[in-house]
Amino acid sequence: MLHYIIQTIAFQVFFLLVFDLFLKRETFFNYNRAYLLITTMLSLILPFIKIESFEQAVPEDYIVALPELFIGKAEETVAIAQNIETLNERGFNIFSWNNLLYLGWIMATLYFAYKLSKLIGLIRKSIKLKYKRQPVIILKNNNIAFSFFNYIFLGDNIKEEEKEAIIAHELIHVKHKHSLDLLFFEMLRILFWFNPLIYIYQKRIANVHEFIADAGAIKYNDKKVYYEKLLLQIFDTKTVSFINPFFKESLIKKRIIMLSKTKSKQVNTLKYALLIPMIIGMLVYTSCNQNTDDVYLNNDRVENKDLDQYTVSKNLDSPQSEESIARSRAANKFLYLNEDYVSWIFIDYKTNISTSSVHHVSEIAPEGYEELRTEIPGHRTHVAYRKMINQDQIPIQTALELAEIDESPIFPGCETLTSEEEKKKCLQESINALVTKEFDTNLEKKLGFTKTKFTVRFTIGKDGIVKNIKCRAPAPELQNEAIRVVGTFPQLIPGKKDGKPVDVLMLLPIAFDISE
Interior CA angle at 309 toward 304 and 313, to 5°? Predict the structure, then answer.
C-alpha cells in the first residue's frame, strides 16, 4: 500500500510539472482539461500495470529484493532464542496506520456530506426560476454566483444588467458538465485525503473550467464589457470545492490575462506528446520494479495445482542445493498468491531433516501437527502446521522450548547464580552485550544498510563450544561478520537434559538500527 501511494504521488508530481511548465499558459483549455483528468487516472492505474516485454528488457541481475527490514535499536532488539515470527510482530504496527487511514476517510466523508447538505438546503429553501429552461436558484440577500450540475445560483443583489453575462458564463459550466470533474476530484480527496497533490489537481482544473467558460461567454458578450464586469464585480463567493463560482478574487487576474491572450498556435499542441515518453518511462519502472509487497509476484496469479513440485526436504546442517532453493521459492510464491493453501512442516532432529509440503486448507493436518500463524506486517497472515520429533537429540528452538531444558547453557561468569531463571537471563544478557560490542556496525554503513535484521543459527555443543554457525543476511559481508562474532563466544557450560549434557540449537535474531 505504501509503495503504491509513493508511486502515485511521484507520477502526479511529474504530470503536474509538465502541465505547469509547458501547458497551463496555452489557450487549449479543453485539451488542458482532458490532460488533467487523464493524467490523474493514469497516476492511479499505472502502478498496477506490468508489461512483460519491459520487464524482460532489464537484466534480472539488477532486480534485487532485500529482506524485510525491522526497525529497532540494537541494544533493545538483539534477542536470543526468539523465532522470526516474534521479531516480525515487534515491527511496524500496520493496524495503527489502518486506523489513521480509516479515520481520515470518515472525516473527509463527513465534511463532504456537510458541504453537500448545505448546497441541497439552498436548493430546497431558495426561490426557483427558469431561464431558457434552465433552473436558476435565487439566493436572498446575497451577491454570489455559481453553478452546480444543472443549477445556476444567483444572489438577488446582483444587478439586472450583469445577470445575463453571468448566466451565459455559468451555462458553459452546465453544458460542459464541469461539476462532474470537480465531483471526481472530491471523491479522490476522500480516498486520498493524505495526498496534497489531489488538492492541487482540483485547483488547476477549476481554473481551466473558468477559462473555458470565459471563452464561451464572450461569444455572446462584448469582450470589453465582459472585462469591465470582471473588474468591477468581485464578490465574496463561499468556498466550496465542487462548485463553479463566477467571481473569485484570486482568479480574476488570470482570467483576464487568458481572455486577452492570442490563441495558441496549433503547433504547440505537440507539447501534449510529452505524455508519451513519460508514460513509457513509468511503465518501464512499474514493470521492472519489485517491492516488499510483491516480492513473489510475476505477471499472473499462480494456478498450478501440482502440489508435489512444492515439497522440499533439506538437511538443517547442510547448505541447500540450488534445486532445493528453487523449490522453496516456488512454494513461497504459490502460498503467497493462493490464500486457500497452507504448508505442513515436519522436522526430525535425529536425522536433522526438515520436510515441507503444500496442502489445501480443507485437508486436515495429521495428528500431532501444531498450527502456526505468522503475522507479517503489510501482508496477510501465513498459516502453517508443524510437527517436530526426536527433540531430545537437538532440543530447543524457541524461548518456550529453552525453558523446558533442565539446565540451560551457562555463560562464563554466570555460574554463581542460583536459580535457573537467573542463569538463562544472564546467558541472554551476556550474549547480547558481546554481540553489541563486537559487531562491526561500520560495515553496515559501508554497505548502505542503516536498518537491517538477520538471524544466526548455532549449536552450543555437549562440550560447551559453539559450533555449526549459520547465517542468512542481506549481504555476504554481514553474514561473515555475524558468523565471526558468534565464533568469538567463549566455551560455555553445556546445557543438560535428564542430567546429561546435550547439544542445544539456538536462534539469535539480530536487528540493527544504526541510522543517525
Answer: 150
Residue-averaged pLDDT of the chain: 77
Kindly state the cell numbers that stand for 148. 452546480
Separation of alpha carbons 165 and 171, rounded Å: 10
What DSSP state is assigned to residue 60?
G
Cα separation, 29 vs 259, whole angstroms = 11
Confidence label for 76 from pLDDT (cuts 50, 70 and 90): very low
Q: Which three cell numbers stand for residue 13?
A: 508530481
* DSSP strands (E only) in 49-206: 127-131, 134-139, 145-148, 151-155
Closest CA to 181 of 215, 151, 209: 209
Q: How many CB atoms lie within 10 A of CB 396?
A: 24
Distance spanning both ends of the chain, measured CA to CA? 27
Least confident of 18-22, 144-148, 222-226, 292-296: 292-296
Residues sharing a CB contact under 8 Å with residue 280, sequence separation 6 or more, in sequence order:
none
> What band does 132 get if pLDDT is binned at 50, 70 and 90?
confident
Query: CB count, 10 Å around CB of 415?
Result: 10
DSSP assigned state of 44: H
Provide the pLDDT for residue 302.
Answer: 42
Cβ–Cβ < 8 Å for 38, 225: no
Distance (Å, rounded) from C-alpha 506 to C-alpha 402?
9
Least confident range of 224-233, 335-344, 457-466, 475-484: 224-233
383 near 337, Cβ under 8 Å? no
Say if residues 9 and 195 touch (Cβ distance below 8 Å).
Answer: yes
Type of residue found at 496: K
The residue among 26, 47, 13 whose CA lies nearest residue 285 is: 47
> Would you call 123 helix, strand, or coil by DSSP?
helix
